[in-house]
Amino acid sequence: MGGTADSVDRSTVHASHQASPLGPYLLFLGDTVEPGYAKTAFGLRDWAPERCIGELVLPGGTVSTGLERLSSEEAHAKGARALLIGVASPGGVIPPQWLPAMLDALRSGLDIVSGMHSRLSDIPELAFAAEAHGRRLVDVRVPPANIPIGTGAKRSGKRLLTVGTDCALGKKYTALSVTRGLQARGLDATFRATGQTGIMIAGAGIPIDAVVSDFLAGAAETLSPAADENHIDVIEGQGSLFHPGYAAVSLGLLHGSQPDMFIVCHEPGRTHVLGYPDVRLPTIEEVILQTVALGKLTNPAIRCVGVSVNTASYTDEQAQRLIAAESDRLGLPVADPLRGGPAFDQLLDRCQG
Amino acid sequence: MGGTADSVDRSTVHASHQASPLGPYLLFLGDTVEPGYAKTAFGLRDWAPERCIGELVLPGGTVSTGLERLSSEEAHAKGARALLIGVASPGGVIPPQWLPAMLDALRSGLDIVSGMHSRLSDIPELAFAAEAHGRRLVDVRVPPANIPIGTGAKRSGKRLLTVGTDCALGKKYTALSVTRGLQARGLDATFRATGQTGIMIAGAGIPIDAVVSDFLAGAAETLSPAADENHIDVIEGQGSLFHPGYAAVSLGLLHGSQPDMFIVCHEPGRTHVLGYPDVRLPTIEEVILQTVALGKLTNPAIRCVGVSVNTASYTDEQAQRLIAAESDRLGLPVADPLRGGPAFDQLLDRCQG
To answer: Is the Cβ–Cβ distance between A219 and A211 less than 8 Å?
Structure first.
């Protein structure tokens, strides 16, 4: 172990060490007719409306975000600075019929931002045009080069990490909701993105699961640098300490984030790890104990400030009942951030310090 | 998270998915005059003598392994199949004066095996000559492509992992010694290498700390595949669960290895994590408890079979006394594998099942 992350491709611009944040965006929907493929565009519209100027749909496309339809030139005139690929294509490659619109975007002064599997800079026409027009091709799946090894040294400022009983149950949206809730209270809070959708929403971040193992904790340290004592970084969690495939990602992120506070995210009713029918889901209590046991290595003051439950499949009344019961049982604030209300206010109270 | 490790460079041959194991070796010492730079060559001579045919020293070089001095052609005639770069150079790059000998090795039918920072395949002359002569350029720092995500599924066969209170205190040599000890007893045991020196010694393996985080556990699963019920894989550990920079690597390796048994490696007298003067070293007991607590996710039957102490700086008598005292205190076999003796025999007894 040692050295720097030199096996990472340096030819592609990445989302963290940006001279300036990504966007504002023109959301690109291509010629898709399947709303399920446009999850990224919908996520951006919902979570970063202030960074979305409009949408660009190609002939034949039927999916819309409801935002104003603009050409790249019109969008640039209205303040857009990047075309964001908001739609997935089967196979994760850029279809040839998208290329003319992407080249036009570069000509119009827009960067291109993508979370697709194939890299923008691997398409020679795009690489050439970006160079010619002085624009950036940003692949948010690519981590920065030259990430240092984690030091474990204490940094100034406060940090909150969302952790989970599993993958895919609301760690990103909890972190976003808490960030906004704290900001609405006049606090100095920053959302720190660790996955591609989060990076697009924030306009910056590090795709933590794409970092070479040796540099995981160091990447998390880089992501939330030293700050003012009253500043709160709210860090998007990944995976789970009890996940047979991804626990290492969660641990590196925990150690590097050295959070003062964490929120456990959970989906009531889920009994097994997603995609692992033989692996029992840990309880919320197990996750709290394990997160404290492991997190204290880099922050002995780490504490759980509450639980975020994903009650998307519940009625309002069912959700209220569940939230009250869980809060009683655990002796902690429990809330569904997407429902807000007094329960979420109590959770935010704890996050203030 | 998901997909395959496609951000890994595929242009370089790596040490695992080899059609055939690496070597036997001709050890290349270059023109070095500093024995400290030749640690790799000495390690190979000491730990894989049966794979070392001779040494190649350039004019001006004064360091020797004591093996027979051979040209590439002579070594090939005696059974060598790879020139192993056994010496480090300042900066980790191949000095130009080494190139003629390396090209001659390829012409003589030898592969080239390197653990240096700069990649062999990035040197056009070498890439061209390897292609022309049908030889391999093997960079042992480069992990294989297409590593799957960890499944956590139980595999047949037995597994033993060496873990540690820290980095750099004998996990590799303990695993090698235990493998040989078991083999000497007629057991079917295989050393599984996870670092570059180990990979050179074994002729195969995966440099686990160079694997992209998402695929860490999957890489460890690939490293020790399903085997006969009585077969024992002895897996080289990395880092420590209490290391602020590398704990994630240790956890991914632990989860993917799903060991039935582990040995805790420790250097008596070390009080702080190497290079981290502010981080207290965990106790052996803490490492045992943590390894069981985390390892049981993928193997509920995980158990500690003993402790390996590195007593290199002790006299024989001091070492015997320390080993007896630690064994009494912990109620476990404690041995320095490099000293052997009855204590090591007791440790091996436990490793048999």
So the answer is: yes
The alpha-carbon gap from A298 to the nearest alpha carbon of chain B, in Å, equals 7
User: Which residues in chain A are contacts of B248 at CB distance < 8 A?
Assistant: 213, 216-217, 248-249, 251-252, 255
d(CA A95, CA A123): 11
Identify the DSSP state of B66.
Answer: S
Mean model confidence pLDDT for chain B: 93
Question: Which of A151, A167, A279 shows the shortest C-beta gap to B152?
Answer: A279
Nearest to A1 among B152, B167, B293 (CB): B167
CA distance B11 to chain A (A): 12
The letter for the amino acid at B264 is V
Q: For residue range B293-340, what is the model confidence (pLDDT) as tens digits? A: 999 999 999 999 999 999 999 999 999 999 999 999 999 999 999 999
**Residue A152 C-beta-side C-alpha neighbours within 13 Å:** 23
Q: Rounded to an integer, what distance in angstroms lies between the CA atom of residue B198 and that of residue B20?
A: 17
What is the secondary structure of B147-189 as a DSSP string?
PPPP-----SSEEEEEEESSSSSSHHHHHHHHHHHHHHTT--E
Write down all domains in chain B, each with its CATH number in brackets. 25-139 (3.40.50.720), 158-351 (3.40.50.300)
Report the C-alpha gap between B328 and B27 in whole angstroms. 44
b/e burial code for range A60-99 (CB count within 10 A of at least 16 → b):
ebebebebeebebebbbeeebbbbbbbbbbeeeebeeebe
Q: Which residues of B touch A252 (CB under 8 A)?
A: 213, 247-248
